[in-house]
Amino acid sequence: MASSKAFVDFILEQISFNGLLDHRKMFGEYALYADGKVVALICDNKLYIKQTPEGRSFIGAALQEAPAYPGAKNSFLIEEGLEDRDWLSQLIAITAEALPEPKPKKKKA
Q: N or C: which end of the chain has fewer CB within 10 A?
């Protein structure tokens, strides 16, 4: 089941981020970007946050699950906390800060 645009919009409305927050449709689902870094995926109307040690410290006991597509890695599945804007915004900021800068795209020959 693909994620609904309404669920994606709800998640975006919940997040206050001091940088650039964007989303892109990928593989029929959505990727969330914070300052150009993929910080989360929305798949099957579920929010999956990329795992970082800093995010784990912030969340505490976190449910880990891989989104339902081939080759997906375990992420933090966020079920509780979706309605808590401050908590979710802080988790996104912590995750974005912890992730490395994206690799530059190679120029086509």
A: C
